[in-house]
Amino acid sequence: MSIGPYLRSLRGRIPPESLSLPHAGVRRVPGLRREEVAVLAGVSVDYYTRLEQGREKNPSAQIVEALCRGLDLTGDERDHLFRLAGYQPPNPVVPNAVRPELTRLLEQWSDQAAFVLTGTLDIVAPNALARALFADVTHQDNLARMVFLDPAARAFYVDWERAAESVVATLRHNTTRTPAAVMDPFVRELSESSAEFARLWHEQRVRGKTHAVKRFRHRQVGDLSLEYQAFDVPETAGWQIIIYAAEPGTASAEALALLGTFTHLLHNAGFGRQK
């Protein structure tokens, strides 16, 4: 599919009033006129017409961005236009917080430890079981700082070296999904604070989070072998939902359930509640 038919479709279904265009008399067909789209995008009417008609097949990324901006495209529509033009969609804006609806959903998962992981591996909106799982470490707000800067992490992660390699490979993967203004200072901070991080970073390994088994040694419930699944959060710069669960019928499942019971009891007693 080329960019022309998609632009015609967009033009035909975007109400002029949604883009604050002045009233221009009776319209024979709904939607925008070509002249209006051209003005909104800052291109000539002739150039825009050639785009729609397929006579101009290689618009620059700057032109595509101007079209997205002029038509107020966001999310999937914006990404689709970039891909039709032959470009990878630029990184979306880094959100400031997790949506309240998602936070409530994570809290409802009482049998799984769940949280949101940002592009720089900040741990955001952890549910009660996730907070209990990470209770042994002090750097609970960021996975990379937890692994490399927290002495307790070497006891908490049974396979610490493997966890360290995974963290660095994930950060390297996220450099193409997270704005450099956000990622570069974070990588510099860790490189200056941890020689091990700096060494692994220079190895250039790349691996995004999908699913894997992690082994933990928790002071309250002992050893845990948990499998995590990672799901992308739509319209975010590399944010993911991470869900840790134990295989049913295993000792780890019993230990995780016990940890959940401790968490529930502490919550009812008034301890461990977020302020």
UniProtKB/TrEMBL annotation:
Q: Which GO terms describe its molecular function?
A: DNA binding
Pinpoint the HTH cro/C1-type domain residues. 31-78
- What InterPro entries does this protein's entry cite? Cro/C1-type_HTH, Lambda_DNA-bd_dom_sf, MLTR_LBD
Q: Name one Pfam family in it.
A: MLTR_LBD
SMART domains annotated for this entry? HTH_XRE
PROSITE patterns in the cross-refs: HTH_CROC1 (PS50943)
User: Any idea what this protein is called?
Assistant: Transcriptional regulator
Name the species this protein comes from: Microbacterium faecale
